[in-house]
Amino acid sequence: MKKFCHIRKSRGFTLVETVIAIGVLAVLLTGFVIVFAPAAAGIKKSINVQEADRLASTLEQELVTSRGTEPTPGFSKAFQWIKESNVANNALLVYQYRGSLSSQRADGTPEPVADAASKVAGKDFAVLSMVRRKGDANFTADLPAVEGGVYLVKCTQLVFQGGELKPGTAGSIRDPKGTAASQSADDYPEAVIAFTAEFHALPGKSEGFMGAPFTKYFNNAKNPVFTRNLAVRR
């Protein structure tokens, strides 16, 4: 007597069921994008704000810190740097670099660590924020140790116009309530210099870029990444 074995064939999805499943998946993906896209944008914005705050804070602090042969007191340095920041060779550059934890330069800043392959962060070096003028030899020395981007800063004094503080003339510092120009911090009549600082992200940071390409970029830089109104005090 023969025995017949009935094999039950597995049933696949119908076209209608497949379309419904795709529709449900599309709805879920749309909901995911709606919920998480704004959150991602908020995180990006937060990081950008923090970076801007760091750059502005580094600039304010360095302007009143005298190093080596720089003018003293710090207010004199700030006066000079703000006034001359619209000249290419005196341009202010903000950056981070790997600074040695065991050796310093004559101006009190750590020596740059160009090759960190065999070094340990926190033991041999630390990443430090710095502001240098473009013509400073120490800036050139720091370039191989730079971490991240380099930002060009153009400063212009804020003066009273129509009862409001507005940018004055680039390359000039004067009595913010009058018209008399000051030649140095000594004859500046106020205790505070208010100024606007334009931060531009440099498209390059190699030593080669810091020659003619930098001067060309400097002269044509018109769209800053961000702008901050700052002040330095005697």
Task: Tell me what the structure shows.
The chain is α+β, with helices and mostly antiparallel strands and about 230 residues long. It has a domain of about 120 residues. Helix content is about 30%, strand content about 25%. Strands 1, 2, 3, 4, 5, 6 and 7 form a 7-stranded antiparallel beta sheet that branches. The longest helix is centred in the first third of the chain and has 49 residues.
Task: Supply the key terms.
alpha+beta, 4 helices, 234 residues, single chain
List the helices and strands and how they pair.
Elements: H1 15-63, H2 74-84, E1 92-104, E2 110-112, E3 125-133, H3 137-142, E4 146-161, E5 164-167, E6 192-201, H4 212-220, E7 226-233
Antiparallel strand pairs: 1-2, 1-3, 1-4, 4-5, 4-6, 6-7
Helix proportion: 25-40%
Average residue pLDDT: 85
Order of helices and strands: HHEEEHEEEHE
Unreliable runs, pLDDT <50, ≥5 residues? 39-47
State which percent range the strand residues make up.
Answer: 25-35%
Number of strands: 7
- How would you characterize the largest beta sheet? 7 strands, antiparallel
Form type: extended
Distance between the termini: 112 Å
Supply the helix-strand structural class: alpha+beta
Q: Quickly count the helices.
A: 4
Radius of gyration: 29 Å
Give a brief description:
The protein is 32% helix and 27% strand. By secondary structure, it is α+β, with helices and mostly antiparallel strands.
